[in-house]
Write the structure tokens for this entry.
Amino acid sequence: MMLPTDLIPIVFAFLIVAVSPGPANIAVATIAMQRGRRASMLFGAGLGTGLAFWGVVAATGMGAVLQSSAIALTILKVLGGLYLLWLAWQSCRSAVRPAADAVPPKGQRRWFLGGLILNLSNPKAVVAWMAALSVGLGDNHAAGQLAVSTLLCMVLGFANYFGHAAAFSLPGFMAAYHRARRWVEGAVAALFALAGFGLLRSALLR
């Protein structure tokens, strides 16, 4: 029988990974300061959907298959690294543009797709899922416990992104961003570039 206490280690492990600074959290926070709550919520919904996809992959055992496939994992790392470098380039362009042209308009669907692609192209997401689900689940864990754990972590993932969107779209954060826009965009570009080159390096050294 599954007890609520059985879920605590899994939830705690996943929460640590979810709230830690990374490309997804940095991106949703930056968009919240740039464009406000609506755009960042849509971006966060895309991030959450991508993260949920990797949760299903991990829970169904496909994550282990992906990890054991050197070719598939390398391709995913290369795609993820290139996408992060593209985001770094976009942030760099935004930093050098005049304030009025810094953030080009984007349709609502594109915000969601941007978040979705960012997490779908992140091979570390499935690794994080597998690590979190393995905490507290024995070799003979029930399918129901795995399903509940996965669903709960999905909810936490969405809550994390929506929380970032809500917090960083507050007037104080948005005003601070616009005062230091070039510095913020430059720092974000550097972080994305480091993450992108890190993924590419990992793919080449595998």
Observations:
- The mean pLDDT is 82.
